[in-house]
Amino acid sequence: MKMKGQILKALRGSEGDLPGETLAARLGISEASVRKHIRSLENRGYVIEDSPAGYRLVSSPDLLLPCEFPGLEHRIHYFPEVGSTMDPARELARGGAEEGTIVIGEAQTQGRGRLSRQWLSPRGGIYFTIILRPEISPAYAPRMNLMASVAVANTVRRLYGLKAEVKWPNDVLIAGKKICGILAEMDAEMDVVKFVNLGIGINANTSIDVFEERATSLKDALGSDISRKELLSALLAEIEQREASLMETNMLEEWRNLSVTLGKHVRIQGPGEVMTGEAIDIDSTGALIIRESDGSLKRAVVGDCIQ
């Protein structure tokens, strides 16, 4: 995949036809190898003209192939279809996969969200899990959800000018409708986090059924398709940058500024407990602080937030 990525980069950077001999010399491979890689790219949907003058890239498929992310190819595990990207990511993480390993699925047949809910994952969306190994106490793991949601919201705002907002614990909304869900899975021992897998599903180039009143997509919001490769590339860079500042106060303040939860009356359905009251803040761990009707304060670490 790395060589295919280099070929694509060379073709995209060429103002005209690129001779196979020139391409081979630049990459340090034979012309026969160039032809082999070109044919493989064509089999994946790339349209490449082959003339006596050389090769010309005509069009690229809307696929999140490893070769579309130069420098990351060795970290990406790509599936045309997968049950859930969380499943192979879990096995990879337990097997010692490096920080930043990514599992991408063009479609998921068993995509899931929080509380084991189904997450519809048709082609056209962006579905991936990234393996992170933050050096934090398990008590601060909820920050990972907040960090990821801020990363998605800020990336959408920067690329498309849409007013993306965050809802506790890990949803991203546009005009009150969900465009992104995030699922975090942690493996820890005592006070040491071994890994946190962040599963992120974004409604990108999908059209949401009119009966799905609480959801939308970037395509529906913008009125046209987006470049999924551009969005995913920008988001991966954003996550990498923000993980480095995970424990800084600024990250929590950014979440507060983007939040549609704080100041609202909410109902938190948690494991074995229901909390109802005003969401007044988040604490240093990322837990939501609820002021109940009697004035008492409670912390919600996990749960379903209805507001």
Strand content is 25-35%
Give the N-to-C terminal Cα separation.
46 Å
N-to-C series of helices and strands: HHHEEEHEEHEEEEHHHEEEEE
The best one-word shape is elongated
CATH class term of the largest domain: Alpha Beta
Relevant CATH superfamily of the largest domain? Bira Bifunctional Protein, Domain 2
Taking the sheet with the most strands, its summary is:
7 strands, mixed
CATH structural fold name of the largest domain: BirA Bifunctional Protein, domain 2
Question: What is the CATH architecture annotation of the largest domain?
Answer: 2-Layer Sandwich
| Residues in helix, % | 25-40%
Low-confidence stretches: none
Count the DSSP helices.
8
Q: What's the structural domain tally?
A: 3
Q: What is the radius of gyration computed over CA atoms, rounded to a whole number of angstroms?
A: 22 Å
- Give the neighbour order of strands across the main sheet: 3-4-5-9-8-7-6
* Mean pLDDT over the full residue set: 92
Count of individual beta strands:
14
Would you tell me the structural class of the helices and strands?
A: alpha+beta
Description:
- The protein has 307 residues and is α+β, with helices and mostly antiparallel strands.
- The chain folds into 3 domains: 2-59, Arc Repressor Mutant, subunit A, CATH 1.10.10; 66-258, Bira Bifunctional Protein, Domain 2 (BirA Bifunctional Protein, domain 2), CATH 3.30.930.10; 265-306, SH3 type barrels (Roll), CATH 2.30.30.
- Helices cover 30% and strands 28% of the residues.
- The chain is built from 8 helices and 14 strands.
- Strands 3-4-5-9-8-7-6 form a 7-stranded mixed beta sheet, with helices on both faces. The protein has a 5-stranded antiparallel beta sheet with strand order 13-12-11-10-14, with no helix packed on it. The chain has a two-stranded antiparallel sheet with strand order 1-2.
- Strand 8 and strand 9 form a beta hairpin.
